[in-house]
Amino acid sequence: MGFKLGRHWITRDATPEQHSQISQFENGEQWVALRSDPAREFTRAVDPKKGDFLGIGDLPPAAFVAGFIDGAKSVSP
How many domains does one find in the chain? Predict the structure, then answer.
């Protein structure tokens, strides 16, 4: 689910700056493994104005964030 939503977000909602930021991440599994709170750290990296994961009002599990990152990275700029 995270992979599909990541692809959708990057193609429909992400800004060019967010796309650039995501392209610099390791793959999703590696990225979340290096973070103590992957959902919050992802939000801080790509949308610092938000306090929760992409403004959804919740913080998803690390596996979802990893899939989301991989989905977003699967789309070329």
Answer: 1
pLDDT of 57 above 80: no
Q: Contact at 8 Å (CB) between 62 and 32?
A: yes
Q: Which residue has the tokens 């070329």?
A: 76
Domain that holds residue 32: 2-73
Q: Is 38 exposed, middle or buried (0-12, 13-18, 19+ CB in 10 A)?
A: buried
What whole-number distance in Å separates Cα of residue 42 and Cα of residue 5?
15
Q: How many CA atoms lie within 13 A of 27 on its CB side?
A: 3
Q: How far apart are CA 53 and CA 58, in angstroms?
A: 6
Q: Convert the pLDDT of each residue in 9-55 to its tens digit.
A: 999 999 999 999 999 998 999 999 999 999 889 888 888 887 777 77
